[in-house]
Amino acid sequence: MNYYALQVKTRSEEIYIKRALLTLSEKDRKTARFIFPKRRLVIRQHGVNKPQIEPVFPGYVFLEAETLENGVYWTLRTTAGFYRFLPDNREPKPLEGRDLSTLNHFMAFGEVADASKVRFDENDRIQILEGPLKGLEGRIVKVDRRKGRAKVKLDMYKDQFAIDLAFETLEIQ
C-alpha cells in the first residue's frame, strides 16, 4: 500500500477528511483510507491539568491507496481546505524511506499515541522504556520533566518541525 501526504488547513484536518469522504465516489471510499495520527498531551491551564488530543503532523493528512487515480486526485484537490500534495502538487509521489518509516512509527500506536514510559539514569539522561518516543531517542532536542514532555524534531519531505510528546516517569526501586 502507498501513502500520499496532503497539506491541508491546519486545525481543520478532520473537517477536510469529512468533506473529502463526502465528495469521493463510493468505489473510491472503499479503496482509499485517510490517516491522521494524533497524540495525547496534558495541558496545564490556570493550575488545572486538562487532557488534550493534538495532531502529530499539524496541517497534514495521509491517504492510503494503491495508486492515486486521476478522479481521486482532482476530488481531493478541489475539496475545501486543501493546499497541496507533497512533494509536488503536479506529480504527487508516495512516501518512501525515512518519511514512510516516521508515519509507520506513529501508525503502530493506533489512532492516538499515548504517553511514553521513561526513566532517567544517574546522569539525568532520559531512557525510553516503551511508547511513541521509543526509537526516536536521537531526535529528542529538549526534555521538560516538570511538564512531562519531550520535544522531538521530525522531518517530512525535507521540512523539519518539532512536536511535543508526553511521557510518564517510572521510578525504579
| Fraction of residues in β-strands | 35-45%
Instruction: Characterize the main sheet.
Output: 5 strands, mixed
The percent range for helix content is 10-25%
CATH-derived architecture: 2-Layer Sandwich
Class derived from helix and strand content: alpha+beta
CATH homology-level superfamily: NusG, N-terminal domain
The average pLDDT score comes to 92
Instruction: Briefly note the CATH topology name.
Output: Alpha-Beta Plaits
> Ranges with pLDDT <50 over ≥5 residues?
none
Strand order of the largest sheet: 9-8-12-11-10
* Shape estimate: elongated
CA radius of gyration: 18 Å
Distance between the termini: 45 Å
**How many structural domains?**
1
Helical segment count? 4
Q: Any idea of the CATH class?
A: Alpha Beta
What is the N-to-C order of secondary-structure elements (H for helix, E for strand)?
EHHEEEEHEHEEEEEE
Compute the number of strand runs: 12
